[in-house]
Design a protein that fits this description.
The structure holds two protein chains of two kinds.
Chain A: E1 4-6, E2 9-13, H1 25-39, E3 42-46, H2 57-76, E4 81-84, E5 103-105, E6 108-112, E7 115-119, H3 127-131, H4 133-149, H5 153-175, E8 177-178, E9 184-185, H6 192-201, E10 207-210, E11 217-221, E12 224-228, E13 237-242, E14 245-250
Parallel strand pairs in A: 1-6, 2-3, 3-4, 4-5, 7-10, 10-12
Antiparallel strand pairs in A: 2-13, 6-7, 8-9, 11-12, 13-14
Helix pairs in contact in A: 1-2
Chain B: E1 9-10, E2 18-23, E3 28-30, E4 39-53, E5 56-63, E6 68-69, H1 71-76, E7 83-95, H2 97-106, H3 109-132
Antiparallel strand pairs in B: 1-2, 2-7, 3-7, 4-5, 4-6, 4-7
The chains are: A alpha/beta, B alpha+beta.
Chain lengths: 267, 141
């Protein structure tokens, strides 16, 4: 099982949920991967790339084939393709070995420039998943029926998540201070993901990249930087790593991506 | 835990059983034969691991950011097998036995990383052992 990697240029995307009735990732992703082919970067899918829980075979096939073809083209160009397992594709844990297409890992410890970066999906730190994994699995499978009947169910879930996160952010904003870059230096850990990132950062990592929450962000914690790569189910955010520098970007469907939401700034 | 070098600064141990330790260049962090039950993770700087031999000191490894040592004493409650010395100012995360258990529950991927490193060390040790053994003689040779 290979958990170590070294890349000077890597793009991290997560939560594509290819095959999920609510996912519109395929079209955007194909254009994005064509763009990445011109940049020279390797690619890491940081969990929930292929949705094995909320899909049908025909949907998964229709979504996956064009994306896999783009990944194959990148591989033919000599790039590395990494796939970190998430909770919607957890079945892939049974195939943790070198695929012909990509390197499948439970998490990656990336060396880039002089920095050590942990890339992990992050579902292990979801309180619901951690405390009741079976119930979590049942709830996710049941949600599949709602999604097939009304794909917009995802929007309801996303709105509820956003409200919860906004409430947490307000709580954190009251506890932290902002610097010139808009980074918040947080003394109070307002999220289980920040707390988990903090634990990992203390082990000699400079940055931690999670997915899972579907909400892209970059936060400066006392121990280092926490980044979330967001989602492609309805969004198009990604983390660009260049010689250890991390930037969160949004793909806008053209040849160029938007400006970064934040810059790497170790406290 | 008081480091042998005596010049190290250690932050108070947290309720999690973890503490941070800053050690000056050239100071010993642990010494071969000493009793100790903590393990260490390198947060920054480097650590040189060495062992006494009749003809002098042999360097076994140089550890970087993210590497760990001292886990044998923590896991087996036995004296230190080797000496660990700071190379440049070095910052360490110190884990007690309780601290390791707490961390494994909160940071479960560390278990896999430990197994991965220990497996790699075992493979290296086996390779060294085989290299030391004389070649098997053909019967009747």
């Amino acid at each position: 099982m290979n958990i170590e990697a070294a890349e000077e240029q890597l793009v991290v995307v997560s939560d594509l949920h290819l095959g999920n009735p609510a996912s519109s990732a395929r079209t955007r992703l194909v254009g994005f991967l064509d763009h990445i082919r011109d940049t020279g970067a390797s690619v890491c899918i940081n969990g929930d790339g292929f949705d094995m829980l909320q899909t049908s075979f025909s949907r998964l096939t229709a979504d996956a084939i064009p994306v896999l073809n783009r990944l194959k083209a990148l591989q033919a160009d000599g790039r590395n393709i990494y796939y970190v397992v998430g909770n919607h594709d957890i079945v892939l844990e049974h195939f943790l070995e070198e695929w012909s297409l990509c390197r499948l890992s439970p998490f990656l410890n990336l060396r880039s420039g002089d920095r050590r970066i942990r890339i992990e999906h992050g579902h292990l730190y979801d309180p619901f998943f951690a405390q009741s994994p079976k119930l979590y699995g049942i709830a996710t499978r049941l949600a599949r029926y709602a999604l097939f009947a009304v794909p917009d169910t995802y929007k309801l879930w996303a709105n509820a998540q956003r409200r919860l996160q906004d409430a947490r952010r307000r709580r954190v904003a009251r506890a932290g201070t902002a610097d010139d870059n808009g980074h918040r230096h947080i003394s109070f850990l307002g999220s289980p993901y920040h707390e988990a990132a903090s634990m990992i950062l203390r082990r000699g990592f400079d940055a931690v990249v999670f997915g899972h929450t579907h909400s892209a962000e970059m936060v400066t914690l006392p121990e280092g930087v926490y980044v979330n790569s967001g989602n492609w189910l309805s969004g198009a955010t990604y983390v660009e790593i260049t010689k250890g520098e991390l930037v969160v970007r949004t793909w806008e469907g053209t040849s160029a991506s938007s400006s970064s939401t934040s810059l790497y700034d170790k406290p | 835990m008081k480091p042998p070098g005596g010049r190290a600064k250690q932050a108070g141990r947290r309720a999690t059983g973890e503490a941070e330790l800053v050690v000056a260049d050239g100071d010993d962090i642990v010494r071969e034969g000493d009793v100790g039950h903590d393990m260490f993770i390198v947060q920054s700087g480097q650590v040189r691991i060495s062992k006494r031999k009749p003809h002098g000191e042999v360097v076994l490894a140089t550890l970087d950011k993210g590497d760990f040592f001292g886990e044998m004493s923590l896991l087996e409650s036995l004296p230190r097998e080797a000496t660990a010395r700071a190379v440049g100012e070095t910052r360490l995360l110190v884990l007690s036995q309780g601290g390791l258990l707490f961390r494994l529950r909160r940071d479960p991927t560390f278990a896999l990383e430990m197994l991965n490193h220990l497996s790699s060390r075992l493979r290296t040790a086996q390779a060294r052992l085989i290299a030391l053994e004389p070649d098997e003689q053909e019967p009747g040779a």
